[in-house]
Design a protein that fits this description.
Number of helices: 0
Helix content: under 10%
Order of helices and strands: EEEEEEEEEEEEEE
Strand order of the largest sheet: 2-3-6-7-8-9-10-11-12-13-14
Strand content: over 45%
Length: about 240
């Protein structure tokens, strides 16, 4: 499959502290195009060979709220986010921009960053609860996930290091559409990362490129993945 999506986030960070930490509230959505092809596909339409599909439209809504604290080189945060299924989705399609069901994810993270040495380490862990997809009568189990990264800043701008993640499904899938039973899944990954920090209009911006080798997969796709992230300000620094 191939997807090209442009996200449009909205965010709010009040000056008033809560429990000594910084509150951040945001809402993400996107408009994109996805093309998916499969040698064999199984859907409510039955089993088909050599099928492809393309869709252009809106993604789901992704609300998020976080609370963060800082003390020298140590940084902590806790968050809650989710998926509101408003995006383009049809269970009979091969390509979709929405997931067809609601979800909620909560967790916390820690970052160590020493500006004098340029060393950085971050880890975020969370749990995801999925509501039932009413179109397929399928409910994914509760997921646990851990994302981590360690890097060294070579200068004020350039950053190199390693990153990885672990995904493990805690409870099995359910619902009348779960024909394969619990179908619990897991996967782990590790790979290099490259980051570049810069400014646009006096405001900070950041670009990151990560490559992952996935292993120890069960009931999930295993292979190689590349993720590119670009964070740019929508306003001006004036």
């Amino acid at each position: 499959g191939q997807a090209v999506t442009k996200e449009v986030p909205g965010e709010y960070a009040p000056e008033t502290k809560l429990l000594g930490g910084q509150v951040w509230i945001g809402l993400g959505l996107g408009y994109g195009k996805e093309t998916t092809s499969a040698d064999i596909s199984v859907s409510p339409r039955g089993t088909e060979l050599g099928r492809s599909d393309t869709i252009t439209g809106m993604t789901d809504l992704y609300p998020i709220a976080s609370l963060a604290w800082n003390r020298g080189v140590d940084n902590w945060m806790t968050y809650v986010t989710g998926d509101i299924p408003t995006g383009d989705y049809n269970s009979a399609r091969l390509a979709n921009l929405g997931i067809g069901h609601g979800a909620m994810d909560a967790g916390g993270g820690y970052t160590y960053f020493d500006q004098t040495t340029g060393r950085e380490f971050s880890a975020v862990a969370g749990l995801t609860y999925n509501w039932k997809n009413s179109s397929t009568q399928y409910q994914n189990g509760i997921d646990s996930h851990l994302d981590w990264g360690a890097s060294q800043f070579l200068s004020a701008n350039w950053q190199v290091g390693v990153a990885g993640y672990v995904y493990y499904q805690l409870t099995g899938d359910s619902g009348s559409g779960a024909k394969l039973g619990p179908f619990k899944s897991k996967v782990a990954a590790i790979g290099p990362q490259l980051g570049y920090a810069f400014t646009i209009g006096g405001m900070p911006a950041y670009a990151n490129l990560r490559g992952y080798w996935e292993f120890e997969a069960k009931n999930r796709v295993e292979g190689y993945a590349v993720f590119a992230t670009l964070v740019i300000p929508l306003g001006s620094g004036k």
